[in-house]
Amino acid sequence: MAEYLFVTCQAGMESLVKAEYMAQVPAARLAFSRRGLVTFKLPDGTTATADLAPRGILPRTFGTSLVTVQTPLPPTSSPASEKAPNRLGAREFMSLLQDVTRFGDATSTSHLIEQTVAAAEQTQMGPWNGVHVWVRDGLMPATNWSRIPNVELPLGWQRFCLHLTEALRAKNLVPANVRANENAEMGQRILDLCLVEPTQIIVGQHQVQHRFQRWSGGVIPPVPAAVPPISRAYFKIREAVSWSGLDLRPGQTCVEIGSAPGGSCQWLLEQDLKVIGIDPAEIDPVIANHPNFTHIRRRGREVKRHDIKQCDWLLSDANLPPNYVLDTIEDLVRHPLIRPKGLVLTLKLPDTKLLEHWHDWTQRVASWGFTQTVGRQLVFNRQEVCLVATKPRRS
Ligand SMILES: C[S@@+](CC[C@H](N)C(=O)[O-])C[C@H]1O[C@@H](n2cnc3c(N)ncnc32)[C@H](O)[C@@H]1O
To answer: Which of 14, 98, 136, 213 is packed most tightly, with the most Cβ within 10 A?
Structure first.
């Protein structure tokens, strides 16, 4: 039987993901797709194992697509429900999820839950170590964060995940103590339930081989910050470090070019790092007054090398073209006083065509000695991607 691969991405990136994967596995065939979700029919006789894993930087997560479940929503008197459920836009979908009586109460989604559990059982692939229930990007705006995310998921959605997991536990498809959307461990086999439309679920699975596959839908769970996050960059740097596994240690120094208003500095300071922010713009007073923070109010190219000679990790989040960012970083890291262990670079993509240069960018970074490079369009990235590069450790 043919196998299907699902790949998720930022809404709007589907055609690039399709093109990249078709170039990687020419014998694959395009199958069902929606905003934020693409599926492929794999060549006969192959399975979605390591060599068929999508290699690009755009996939958010991937796994095997097993079966699709489709049910009607129960009718309600609410005006929004006059639209067919599969035609709901992101806003209407969110309002549906906020309304527990329409989505979340055991009765409102019982049909969808019953059918999903029955379909999972019929695959005979269970039991699984855990279950990830997630919404494709482009349907729930909370997974396509353009602003600071709301860390509280809609109540209806929370209830739905709860009831669904209870039903899976009752059939012994997941262990008795499992809750929905717990971070998985490496090697575990996870049941994926992707809500494609309010009435449609793809039942899939994946074995965790990458850090991002530990997170439900490849989305790092947002956590409430000690102090409200100053900017989206708070979540961006947290995701970049968690995904890449960068070994930032308390007491080390991070230098960030493009640090205002200070979201990423805020997260780094919470990790007990020292932070030097380089930016001509003003830094939020909460950060500016922090004892472990120093503001250099200049452009990246104007900074005195001596002022950042303690740099352990060099970051850039400046809103500048990628080549300009790389020129600035090169000027710094080629200087004998500045010897960072690694780089975390946000590369802005006003036009996705710029991604054609990705290979050149990583080669350029490698030529400075940062030969271990990884890239990802973070969930918290907008029109940008993240490049993390480290030097090989000396033995
Ligand atoms: C996306 S914001 C950075 C957000 C920031 N990382 C945070 O955590 O809140 C981009 C910043 O880049 C700064 N910037 C633009 N050109 C720069 C340059 N040549 N050197 C340093 N900063 C620059 C801007 O002033 C702006 O504050």
So the answer is: 136
Better pLDDT: 236 or 93: 236
Q: Could you tell me the two tokens for 362?
A: 């990583």
CA distances from 170 to 91, 114, 121, 127, 269 (A): 33, 12, 11, 12, 44
Residue 332: what are its φ and ψ, rounded to 5°? -75, -50
Residue nearest ligand 1's atom 6 by CA: 259
pLDDT tens, residue by residue, 284-321: 999 999 999 999 999 999 999 999 999 999 999 999 99
- Residue 263 CB less than 6 A away from ligand 1: yes
Those residues whose C-beta lies under 8 Å from the C-beta of residue 2, and which sit 6 or more positions away, are 41, 42, 44
| Pairing mode of beta strands 384-390, 372-376 | antiparallel
- Summarize the confidence of residues 232-251 as an average pLDDT: 96
| HEC readout, 155-197 | HHHHHHHHHHHHHHHHCCCCCCCCCCCCCCCCCCEEEEEEEEE
> Is the CB–ligand 1 distance for residue 345 below 6 Å?
no
Q: Compute, in angstroms, the gap from residue 247 CA to the centroid of ligand 1.
A: 24
pLDDT (tens digit, 9 = 90+) per residue, 106-162? Answer: 677 889 999 999 999 999 999 999 999 999 987 765 455 555 666 677 888 889 999
Nearest alpha-carbon partner for 71 in 196, 169, 172, 192: 196
Write out the two tokens for 341.
């262990």
At 28, list the tokens.
């694959």
Cα diameter, the chain: 70
Mean pLDDT for 23-30 is 95
Supply 22's token pair: 């078709």
The response to whether residue 20 sits with its C-beta less than 6 Å from ligand 1 reads: no
Q: What is the pLDDT of residues 179-200, one digit of tens each?
A: 999 999 999 999 999 999 888 9
Nearest one of 214, 262, 254 to 236, comparing CA atoms = 262
Q: pTM of whole model > 0.85?
A: yes
- Structure confidence at residue 77 (pLDDT): 41
Which residue among 276, 287, 317, 347 has the greatest number of ligand 1 atoms within 8 angstroms of its CB, and so is best to mutate?
A: 317
Neighbours of 285 (CB within 10 A): 10
- Angle made by CA atoms 312, 313, 319, in degrees to the nearest 5: 145
In the chain the domains, ranked by start, together with CATH numbers, are 4-218 (3.30.2130), 233-390 (3.40.50.150)
